[in-house]
Write a structure and sequence with these properties.
- By secondary structure, the chain is an all-alpha fold.
- Helices cover 53% and strands 0% of the residues.
- It has eleven helices and no strands.
- The radius of gyration is 26 Å and the shape is globular.
- The two termini are 31 Å apart.
- The C terminus is likely disordered.
């Protein structure tokens, strides 16, 4: 949820800047901003309820329904009205693709079939053998029982429904929110959206841009929480921080604060899962997207307490891309 504040800030800024040139796009951005504020409150509450026991879903089904409904409405606005009109806007284009990936991320977290929670009770699928008779069918496949000329057995008894007489077909239970959204596997779609958003941010934005860091931070969270690929998540967070160190463009104070805030969370993502497992290895899930590390890249400096600094420092005397707050007066004249 660390990226929400940055995304909403840029949403409001773009909605205001496009009001004169494209009022329709501005109105859609304001609608998405309003729905995003409501959705954020629901997501924070759902995450707090899950924090008590990660093996159980939230008891309030109404909360799940609100999250799915708000995500669906936002996704309709983003895909049908915003994405076709952002080709001429560089940062807004990256933000729009990132919002689409975030909404599919919500689908995977709260409405995916099968569930991403490995310890949850397995759900029924259309290919389930529930209600069928493999035992009796194997007996009837015997050449003795299947002989139509056998005078004792009288031939094979054929049933229309494939079930014994008197046993009605068993209906497969569906998700409680299937009336809002089909309960299918959204992982391939979400992974594709995150890949596209990350590629656009790498192509169009510098390494220290807050929108680019926002994309990478949520992508890393998606890899860890949904694909259960801790190695790829930590590698992506590490590479994002290296990109910040290697960036050469300048920034104002507002972008400086946002970038430093997101780099701090990326540093936490680098250590996520290491304290409990003790090793950095993990078993990637089938279909997961791994992010290779860059060989030969310089190590990231750490402070005395083992936490990577949110503000990089330069050792060769060159002005860093994110300078020390204490040196702002000298460089920015504030």
């Amino acid at each position: 949820m660390a990226t929400v504040d940055v995304d909403q800030k840029f949403l409001g800024r773009f909605a205001k800047s496009t009001d004169a040139d494209n009022p329709f796009l501005s109105s859609m951005l304001y609608k998405v901003l309003g729905l995003s504020v409501l959705l954020t409150k629901k997501l924070v509450r759902a995450r707090r309820l899950r924090r008590l026991d990660t093996t159980r879903d939230t008891k309030s089904l109404q909360l799940y329904h609100h999250i799915i409904w708000l995500s669906r409405e936002c996704l309709v606005l983003v895909e049908q009205y915003i994405l076709p009109m952002v080709a001429a806007h560089i940062e807004l284009k990256v933000l729009a693709y990132k919002l689409r990936a975030s909404l599919y991320h919500n689908y995977v977290l709260y409405h995916n079939q099968p569930s991403i929670n490995r310890t949850a009770i397995p759900s029924y699928t259309a290919t389930s053998n529930k209600g069928k008779e493999p035992e009796r069918r194997s007996l009837r496949s015997s050449p003795i029982l299947n002989d139509p000329n056998d005078p004792i057995e009288g031939g094979r008894v054929r049933m229309q429904s494939g079930l014994p007489p008197g046993l009605a077909p068993i209906s497969i239970p569906k998700s409680s929110a299937s009336f809002l959204l089909p309960a299918v596997d959204y992982i391939p779609t979400a992974s594709s959206c995150f890949t596209m958003a990350a590629a656009l941010s790498d192509e169009l934005l510098p390494g220290s841009n807050p929108l680019r860091l926002s994309v990478k931070l949520e992508y890393a969270a998606y890899l860890h929480d949904c694909l259960h690929d801790g190695d790829a998540s930590r590698a992506l967070a590490r590479q994002s921080i290296r990109d910040v160190y290697e960036a050469e463009e300048g920034m104002d104070d507002d972008m400086f604060d946002d970038a430093a805030f997101l780099v701090g969370y990326l540093g936490k993502m680098m250590r996520r899962g290491l304290s409990t497992s003790g090793t950095s290895g993990s078993t990637p899930r089938n279909g997961s997207v791994a992010t290779p590390s860059t060989p030969g890249a310089r190590d990231i400096p750490y402070s005395d307490n083992g936490i990577p600094p949110a503000i990089p420092y330069s050792n060769n005397g060159i002005l860093p891309v994110i300078p020390d707050p204490g040196t702002r007066t000298r460089y920015y004249g504030v």
